[in-house]
């Protein structure tokens, strides 16, 4: 039992670190500060599908902390509440994709490829929509004053955060779709 806990902690830390490395490496793929086509959340999703919500949310939190520690959050931190929401809460919420784990385990055991892939896409959707919902709320509350004249904070946040959500959801979905033939290896305990 103790060995399992150590394995989960080690995997959580390693995959959070890998997410940070992918985040740093895929910065050039961003089409600006708000538009991104990146698969940097893939390690967190792999952990969510392998170990469930709690370890994945912890990995997301560690990733958010690493972003702050490495200065990736610099310039995007307006105040303590906004920074906490967008770097600690939002990144933790990627782990919500692990909600599909019980059904994914069954589909993988029965070798139901279409069902397994569908559940992975659903998990990606749940994790990314949860993360970007927090960014959307923060966008309205904290970034709305940056909206172009005549544009509401709601529309501004929808456009900015919606474009990033779409790009990252597509990138993660494509990456995990391509990895799907090997995913059983990743998901075995």
From TrEMBL:
Alphabetical keyword list: Membrane, Transmembrane, Transmembrane helix
Keyword Transmembrane helix assigned: yes
InterPro entries per record: Thia_Transptr_ThiT
Transmembrane segments: 7-25, 31-49, 56-78, 84-104, 116-145, 165-187
One Pfam family it belongs to: Thia_YuaJ
NCBIfam families: ECF_ThiT_YuaJ
The protein's name in its UniProt record: Energy-coupled thiamine transporter ThiT
Annotated organism of origin: Streptococcus dentapri
Gene: thiT
């Amino acid at each position: 039992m103790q060995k399992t806990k150590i394995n989960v902690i080690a995997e959580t830390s390693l995959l959070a670190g890998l997410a940070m490395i992918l985040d740093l490496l895929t910065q050039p793929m961003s089409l600006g500060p708000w538009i991104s086509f990146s698969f940097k959340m893939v390690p967190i999703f792999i952990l969510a599908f392998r170990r469930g919500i709690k370890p994945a949310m912890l990995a997301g939190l560690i990733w958010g902390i690493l972003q702050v520690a490495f200065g990736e959050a610099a310039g995007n931190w307006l105040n303590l509440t906004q920074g906490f929401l967008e770097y600690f809460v939002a990144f933790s919420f990627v782990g919500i994709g692990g909600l599909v784990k019980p059904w994914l385990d069954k589909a993988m055991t029965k070798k139901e490829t279409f069902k397994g892939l569908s559940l992975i896409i659903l998990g990606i959707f749940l994790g990314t929509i949860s993360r970007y919902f927090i960014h959307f709320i923060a966008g309205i509350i904290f970034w709305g004053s940056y909206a172009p004249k005549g544009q509401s904070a709601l529309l501004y946040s929808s456009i900015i955060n919606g474009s990033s959500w779409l790009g990252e959801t597509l990138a993660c979905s494509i990456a995990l779709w391509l990895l799907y033939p090997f995913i059983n290896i990743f998901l075995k305990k």
